[in-house]
Amino acid sequence: MNIGDVATRAGLPPKTIRYYEDIGLLTPHRGANGYRAFTEQDVHKLAFLARARALGFTIEDCRALLALYEDESRASAEVKHIAEEHLAQIDEKLAQLQQMRDTLAHLVHACHGDDRPDCPILTDLAGPES
Amino acid sequence: MNIGDVATRAGLPPKTIRYYEDIGLLTPHRGANGYRAFTEQDVHKLAFLARARALGFTIEDCRALLALYEDESRASAEVKHIAEEHLAQIDEKLAQLQQMRDTLAHLVHACHGDDRPDCPILTDLAGPES
DNA sequence: ATAGAGGTTCCAGTCACTGGAAGGTCAAGG
DNA sequence: CCTTGACCTTCCAGTGACTGGAACCTCTAT
Prior knowledge:
130 residues; homodimer; Multidrug-efflux Transporter Regulator, Chain: A, Domain 2; mainly alpha; DNA-binding
């Protein structure tokens, strides 16, 4: 199978697939014409990667998950550990983002947003008067 | 004032301050020794930038906000517009992240995380059976 | 005189792609 | 047989917002 079909089936742009080969996430065979020749297993791997990436796992997480995925004798605890770490990071990011949102929403609400120059958003960004 | 003191007062690493100069966010004068000589106004500007960045505004947002900040006759509507756009982006990101969190939390919860190889996390990442 | 802290520039790397140029290959239609 | 256009290849450069490091200069205190 050529890269275009694989791209469609795995839901990843061809560029990204080539990039994944570059960094060693998979090593498709080559046909006589030099084209990459993907197997069903490759497609499966790429779909796995697409899902993991969509869940926000880093490439290095993905590399580890893929290795565990292919290791028939892995312990599920290992996978759970990676996922839990990632979950903790997401929670932290969520809290930060929520905090940012609240602050910003408050500022936006306080700004009348008309032709006049006085603006609580800028005043706040300027910090406490010295 | 030298860059180190400014860094402390504005809460930004020296490297970042130099970078901000590189991209034209400020242009501190130079002393006879070639050192950057920051004014109080520069410090204020950098603190403004630090706050805006902490709120997740992009550098280009910051450039615009800084210009509005320095424009005595700006309309607060302009500032509000930038902030509202940013708020919308944050909301979108929050929703995505929350979705990711829920999915991942569900998977983590479903995985027993022991020595055995079967793992719902990997099963889910592998996608629907074909 | 010297040591150490802090300043300078410039280049390269991060992360995960993405865009574009230059060129090779394939299948279909005239 | 030739052309057209879609698709493939590689390689290089750019994104955003820094960050690390090397090589070198300057200041202050001892």
